[in-house]
# Entry
Amino acid sequence: MGVDVLLMQVHRKGTSPKHHHRSVLDSVPDYSDIFAELCENSGKPMLSRVDRYGSLLLTSLDMPQFIAEVDGLRSSVESAEQAAILDEIGGLARRCGEGGNLELHLEGD
# Structure
């Protein structure tokens, strides 16, 4: 069970969350469960909250910590496949951090 990472744009009509619409801008699928396993074994506070069976929504305000944890994890992996998925997820996180109307959704199976 992998954890797919989706960069979402939030379109707000008014102040009620009922009127918010989200659209996917980009995604990183976790077909081989690489990201899910890295998160489970990371020992890092935010990455440890990632649930391969649930969902986690992060806003642009969460990105400094998330990026730091992903980058820290990236420096310790040995497999090129692990490094590649962390690079892609880090790229989505950086984009999310640049826009207040963006969210990062971590979706388990």
About this structure: The helical segments are 34-40, 63-74, 80-98.
